[in-house]
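Hey, can you fold this one?
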Amino acid sequence: MKNRIIIAALSIFSLSACSKSALDNNNGSGTANVIPASSVPSAVMTSFNNSFSNATETEWQRHSSSFEVQFNHSSQRHSAGFDDNGHQSSHSVICLEAAVPQVVLDAFRSRFPTDNVYEWKLRNDGTWRAHIMRGSVKYEATFSASGAFIKFEQAK
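Sure. Predicted structure:
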């Protein structure tokens, strides 16, 4: 029951706007427009369905030259990026702070004592990425699974 509440809260949060400023892992920054699944090219949809056949609660976004989808799969919220030809360019698990290892949380807090994380992502390479806002500027801090600081940068 607790997982369903968390997933519902994430879904509501992720659907709260029709246009979002989002990180496009391949092409820099820009505004991502939420689009219906019917507007996603068939090559992209086929690739997504082959990789995540049981995905639910999908939300598609169009970037300048790519697509990003957030979805539920295996009791977790995910984000994946695809180019126009359906090649998957990224995949990460979107996590609540409770899912982040304590060593990573402690490392983040010691380095960034006044920043608040609005989203944690567990990346395919096992690193954790904290997404934070400073004013209206988005930043990302990346840590290894053991809590080692890797990098801090403005979101592209």
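The mean pLDDT is 80. Let me know if you want another pass with a different chain boundary.
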